[in-house]
Amino acid sequence: VFPGNCWAFQGHQGQVVIKLPTRVYLTAITLQHISKDASPSGTIISAPKDIAVFVSLLGTSGGVDADREEEILLGVFTYNVEKNPTQTFPLKNMLLPRAFSHVKLLVKSNWGNPWYTCIYRVKVHGKMENQKASTQGQD
Question: What gap in Å lies between CA 47 and CA 118, rounded to an integer?
Answer without folding.
Answer: 6
